[in-house]
Description:
Largest sheet: none
Structural class: mainly alpha
Distance between the termini: 47 Å
Amino acid sequence: ALLGPLAASVLGLTVLTIATLKLSRRRFPGLLRPRFSRDLLQETFGLALPAFLIGLLVGPAYWWANTLLARSSGFAEVAIFGVAFSLTQMIMLVPSNLSIPAVSFLSETHSSGDLRQFGRLVGDNFRLMWAIVLPIATGCAILSRPVIHLLFGTQYERASHLVLVMSFAAILMILNSVVINATFGCGYLWHGFLITLGWLVLFIVIGSLLIPARGAMGLAYTFILSYAPQVLVGAVYSAVVLGVPFKKMGPLLAISVLAFGSVVALNRVLHGTPLLAVGCILILLLVASEWIWVCDEGERAEVISRCLTFLRQPPGIVGAGVTAGGN
């Protein structure tokens, strides 16, 4: 079972390396050399080391939590939590892919010396990532039971209760990644490492108390109770150190509380088709509320403009036109 993914990873890395070398030599002829100066190596190592350590903190922490869960409650609880965590990763998929390119924009803006614009970009990224992941997390919490039945089977239905908690945790994890990416963009990678180290201490302490006592649900609560303070510390750090102006956080927080409060209430009183119908209405109201109270005029105009452009010229037609023009 492990040999297939390992072979695929090695093959993919080989193909990607060959393609990267060919493209680099074609785009930058004569500049790709196997020798590096000592200063360049020191700079590269100074950037890579804290990023590597951040990943080194997070991965083993998750492994430790699952090991503790298995030893205290059995592998059945690990399987239940694994299902919930899989849906959590689905929630984070789109926001995570959107936030990764933001690092290059943040780095370029910070390098230009426009610190005020850098702060605005971080604040807008924080707000928009929150606004994007909230409807996805709400929808996943409402649809958790039928999705689990479809993908994993009815024997894992108990994981639907964990999905509700982990959906909220997914929002906190995305917001934390926004702060960490901001430290990457401005070169303060060791600050990001220290913030992550603080999360690790909280995660281990809280997990040591809750996981043996509450099993899989205790691990889900551990995620929330460790990431919530980290997001708060990251927001304060961003405002004080990076000069980030946060706007419209009050309406967004109120909408989030109402959304998840409604999901909890709906899951207690409704089931089956009525739950799905009312849940869809809730998601539409949530998106409309964000459109009115979270997005500003410029963002609404940009979204409308891009939607109209897409409807008038679908991607296939645009790509064909560009290719024809280029030829």
